[in-house]
Design goal:
It is built from three helices and four strands; from the N terminus they run βαββαβα. It has helices at residues 15-27, 57-67, 81-97, and strands at residues 2-9, 35-41, 47-53, 71-78.
Length: 99
């Protein structure tokens, strides 16, 4: 399964909390069951995005638990847009078939 993860630094973070988050990040390694397709920081330095694939959602939950102290995080399951278009077409056909 593919997920887009986004994070924003909590507005109440002070210098000490930011330093601590960077210290923890420096020691962190992703789970072996998670592949990072993209790992991006926002140009305003307030957060970032990751596109990951994994069959082990618990590995994603683990990382959210670690970094949720400092960041507001969202994890959104996603599909390729071509797949979405095909599924949407099937859904519309089903809806149209219901009298």
């Amino acid at each position: 399964m593919k997920y887009v993860i986004s994070w924003l630094a909590k507005p109440s973070l002070g210098e000490a909390e930011i330093a601590r988050s960077l210290q923890v990040f420096g020691k962190w390694t992703p789970s072996e069951t998670v592949t990072f397709e993209q790992f991006l920081g926002r140009a305003d330095a307030r957060g970032g995005f990751a596109v990951v694939t994994t069959d082990d959602v618990n590995a994603v939950v683990r990382d959210m638990a670690i970094f949720g102290t400092w960041f507001d995080m969202d994890v959104v399951p996603v599909v390729e847009v071509g797949d979405l278009a095909a599924i949407s077409g099937e859904a519309l056909a089903f809806i149209a078939s219901v009298g």
